[in-house]
Design a protein that fits this description.
422 residues; mainly alpha; two-stranded antiparallel sheet; two-stranded antiparallel ribbon; 18 helices
Length: 422
Amino acid sequence: MRKELVAGLITFLTMSYILIVNPNILSATGMDKSALFTATALAAIAGTLFMAFFANLPVAQAPGMGLNSFFAFTVVLGMGYTWEFALTAVFIQGIVFLILTFCNVRELIVNRIPQTLKDAIPVGIGLFIAFIGLQNAGIVVNNDNTLVGLGHLADRNVWVAMLGMIVISVLLVRNVPGAILIGIIVSTTFALILGVTKMPEGSLLSMPPDLSPVFFKFEWAQILTFDMFIVVFTFLMVNLFDTIGTLLAVASRAGLIDKNGNFPKVKSALFADAMGTTVGAVLGTSTVTSYVESASGVAAGGRTGLASVSTACLFAVALFLAPIILIVPASATAPALIIVGLFMVNSVLKINFDDFTESIPAFLTMIMMPLTYSIAQGIVFGMLGYIFIKLLAGRTKDISLTVYVVGAIFLIKMVIDAAGFF
């Protein structure tokens, strides 16, 4: 039980940034920022508890990064629709997901993904979250000439993260329980000493802001328009494969994949995901999805829904203790993400690199996730690469009907994008 509770705490710490980032992004549409803080926390609580009780999995949910940017900057600020229109699209997406899950469509897609891609997805996500950790630490930064480069060593965040890396690494070598949590605590303490973060001033307790400005704010007048279809379709595609990738990666790390490479709990997990999205839209936030940061809790020993209950409870506490929660800087949780990235790349050993029809799609999956900053895009490139390479090599028996259908949907989405709808 202690391991599960600690795992939930670590997952919360590595994803608690969403309480700040999501309101900042969505408020660009004119939505009430204070209300969005409450909506984000409540959506995370609801989605994570769904995952705990429906699927009994150590997977946390919250409004997804990327999807919130599409909501704000493409649908509202780009296409000129109201945020109520975008919120309605999210709600419709949740209902469609519930129907697809009930009809086993989503489960069918997960189970029919080629094994080489199933082995590649955790590796790609491992590289992706390690890359996020390096960015959060300031070790890797934007660079006009090469896109990314080494951060400035004068940045105190770099030293906070490097100390955390050393502490966690040494504790792992010595098999000390709770190594990742100890590393986060040590890093946060060091950050306080360096002035990277500060203890909160005034009262440590605060009441949650009023939710009513964003609660149940739907716009039904345009639900049958082509633009609504395009927006819902895009939300569906990105969330579907973000969720599939995350669930497969976390399940693989937790040892929940069976001998045939399938994930027995996938239907209940996908149902929990669909419920999270639907309830999140009612609460007033963008698409709720499974968080890859859950792998940090799994790495600390989380294996059941109790870890998710722990995470959900901490989000509930955060509603009232935000000043304390927010003293943990991103640079203090960055080492946890980097180390978890290491834990997740071991499935690369299962890939048959001697068969190029298997290894090339796997490589595309792995490399495109961090470089496009998207789990879904990595799966898209890997899946299309698998189909075309197998077809041109005359290995058509390796491609199932489901894979053909999914590939066709990906191509349709690419054509839509190329046509300038976005």
